[in-house]
Amino acid sequence: MRRITGLSNPTVKYLRSLRDKKHRRRERRFLAEGLRLLTDARETGHCPETLVMAEGREAHPLLDALVADVEAAGGDVIEVSQEALSKITGKDNPQAVSGVFAEFDTPLSRIDRDAAPLFLVAQAMRDPGNLGTMLRTADAVGAGGLVLVDDCADPFSVEAVRASMGAIFTVPLAQARWDEFHAWLREGPGQLVAASLRESHDYRAAAYAAPCFVMVGNESRGLPEEYEMACDLRVHMPMKGRADSLNAAVASAVLSYEVLARLG
Fold this sequence. Notes:
Elements: E1 2-4, H1 10-17, H2 21-27, E2 29-33, H3 35-43, E3 50-54, H4 61-72, E4 76-80, H5 82-89, E5 97-102, E6 118-123, H6 128-140, E7 146-149, H7 158-164, E8 173-176, H8 178-185, E9 191-195, E10 201-202, E11 212-216, H9 225-229, E12 233-236, H10 248-263
Parallel strand pairs: 1-4, 3-4, 6-7, 6-11, 7-8, 9-11, 9-12, 10-12
Antiparallel strand pairs: 2-5, 3-5
Helix pairs in contact: 1-5, 3-4, 6-7, 6-10
């Protein structure tokens, strides 16, 4: 273990840079924080390349296990001041431990349609919190994966990783353009279901079929009409109040549990 005290240290600057998309894309590395989240990552086979710990932290057996695994894998274990950790994470009261991970992605060709009856699809989702929430929902419902279509928020941003509560490490994640995704889907079994108001059915009375790919669109614009019309089924959720729609991530969660209940 090595200790770093200065805020201008090159390692601190490098770690801080991973909060920025352009540096994250260049390095193909991302930050995750919190003992629970890093433990979930370790238990699913994702070991941080660098482990950053705050000085004066409380001892914990899970942290000891993390340190041992990182060192055994030839990784770097660093101790920094609370001030330096705040600079790295961008939080005034950061978690006592953070890690640097290599980015990963699952090609569409490796998505196993038989892995689960349900998959989630997000099209042009721009809010990293919503994206992280969808990952968390996918984990909660046992979805076979989350497919990001077109220009979505970066799933490896600090905000998305934090909102996923560790699901970034447990849910297969694929990224593709619409044409690529649609062509892949039609090569095999798969019902594409859109959350939509165009010629749609009540979500509680629709006929779902496995494997079911539940797709939600951009937070403000929804799905393009062309995409909706290419779906096998379009469903809507009745709105009882003044609001005319649900948050995209919330809608995906409601639909996911209804699909699972209907598919048994």
